């Protein structure tokens, strides 16, 4: 009688079990051809071969067992699985985060035994843990950071779903973004987002222009299908029509500098918009993103910012031209060099309208700001008069 009572080693459990069709194919192969690869034991538990062991148990074939004889059991498991398993980059990123503490623990054990400073991860290899994990598991640091973020947020269910192949990081980002858009819509309907109070000498505005591509198929809940890797027209945030943007009441002083961000498609719309807001166009700044993006006609590499004024605002420029160059980062985020330029050229109270983050020396307003604009509410009547 064959007795199947072996448990799997914690090192083996780092990697997910095969399921479904893969598991059935493994059973069929063992049933027809026998067990070709032995099951490796370590500390009385299965170090390598859990899936083969399970298949043998289910079809009633006695497994072939052997003891692990090396001194790096964890690396043995990692190497074997990475070579024969078809794991996605997302799965490898998750596993890398789980395995890093174990690798360091094993390295410390060996160091104490050998009384040397030898370690699995060479001490000469400098850098953050995410970089080390990325190199070992052949996955980009971005994937590792995304998984670490999920871990820090305590979203263990999502991490497990990625590990087993049921979800991808992109799936989770899509879910999160759609949930955020849903929340924004609810907040906007309740007028819960605090609007800027008082008047400003300098205003930077990056309107959420509504592309024709925004007329995409919506889900049952009325939210858009979010495709961040697709065309630029599919925007991962709430957009506004030109009429809605025109109806924004800019809190501008009589003497004010306006920086209006736009893309190629919306350049013609900027002129009537400036007229409605009471600003005079002066020139246009172009941002070279140092990266070729998507596009329906020509692939996009630039974005534009129109400079317009009202009255006679302070403006002192001695070196800046109509071109700035800086590598793009997040979707819709504007370059840091732009804000450096505005800070040098302009003076007074500054507002970043539809901002994505807080900025020292600026008041900010936008759905991306966790703690919205902090402005003296006693000035509220000044804006409404």
Question: Could you explain the architecture of this structure?
Answer:
The chain is an alpha/beta fold. The protein folds into 2 domains: 12-171, no CATH class; 200-384, Rossmann fold, CATH 3.40.50. The protein is built from 12 helices and 10 strands. The protein has helices at 20-33, 50-59, 73-84, 89-114, 129-136, 141-152, 156-163, 169-189, 242-246, 267-277, 336-345, 380-384, and strands at residues 39-42, 45-48, 65-67, 200-205, 252-262, 280-288, 302-310, 323-325, 350-353, 363-365. The strands form 2 sheets. The protein has a 7-stranded mixed sheet with strand order 8-6-7-5-4-9-10. Helix 4 (89-114) packs across helix 7 (156-163) and helix 5 packs across helix 6 (141-152). The radius of gyration is 29 Å and the shape is elongated.
Describe the secondary structure blueprint for this structure.
Layout: H1 20-33, E1 39-42, E2 45-48, H2 50-59, E3 65-67, H3 73-84, H4 89-114, H5 129-136, H6 141-152, H7 156-163, H8 169-189, E4 200-205, H9 242-246, E5 252-262, H10 267-277, E6 280-288, E7 302-310, E8 323-325, H11 336-345, E9 350-353, E10 363-365, H12 380-384
Parallel strand pairs: 1-3, 4-5, 4-9, 6-8, 9-10
Antiparallel strand pairs: 1-2, 5-7, 6-7
């Amino acid at each position: 009688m064959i007795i199947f009572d072996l448990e799997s080693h914690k090192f083996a459990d780092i990697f997910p079990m095969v399921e479904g069709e893969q598991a059935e194919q493994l059973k069929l192969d063992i049933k027809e051809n026998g067990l070709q690869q032995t099951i490796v034991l370590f500390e009385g538990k299965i170090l390598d071969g859990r899936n083969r062991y399970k298949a043998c148990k289910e079809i009633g074939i006695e497994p072939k067992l052997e003891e692990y004889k090396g001194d790096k059991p964890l690396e043995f498991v990692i190497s074997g699985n990475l070579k024969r398993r078809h794991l996605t980059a997302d799965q490898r990123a998750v596993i890398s985060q789980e395995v890093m503490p174990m690798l360091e623990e094993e390295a410390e054990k060996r160091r104490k035994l050998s009384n040397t400073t030898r370690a699995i991860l060479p001490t000469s290899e400098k850098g953050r843990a995410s970089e080390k994990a990325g190199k070992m598991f052949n996955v980009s640091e971005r994937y590792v950071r995304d998984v670490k973020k999920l871990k820090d947020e305590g979203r263990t269910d999502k991490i497990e779903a990625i590990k087993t192949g049921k979800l991808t990081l992109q799936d989770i980002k899509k879910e999160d973004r759609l949930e955020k858009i849903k929340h924004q819509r609810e907040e906007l309907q309740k007028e819960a987002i605090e609007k800027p109070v008082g008047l400003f000498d300098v205003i930077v505005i990056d309107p959420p222009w509504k592309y024709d591509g925004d007329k995409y198929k919506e889900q049952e809940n009325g939210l858009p299908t979010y495709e961040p890797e697709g065309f630029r027209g599919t925007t991962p945030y709430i957009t506004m029509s030109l009429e809605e943007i025109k109806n924004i009441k800019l809190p501008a002083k009589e003497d004010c500098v306006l920086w209006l961000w736009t893309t190629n498609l919306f350049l013609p719309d900027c002129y009537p918009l400036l007229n409605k807001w009471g600003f005079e166009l002066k020139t246009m700044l172009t941002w070279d993103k140092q990266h070729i993006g998507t596009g329906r006609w020509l692939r996009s590499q630039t974005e534009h910012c129109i400079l317009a004024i009202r009255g006679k605002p302070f403006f002192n420029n001695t070196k800046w031209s109509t071109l700035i160059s800086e590598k793009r980062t997040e979707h819709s985020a504007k370059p840091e060099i732009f804000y450096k330029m505005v800070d040098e050229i302009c003076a007074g109270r500054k507002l970043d309208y539809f901002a994505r983050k807080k900025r020292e020396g600026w008041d900010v307003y936008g759905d991306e700001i966790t703690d919205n604009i902090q402005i003296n509410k006693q000035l509220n009547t000044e804006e409404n008069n």
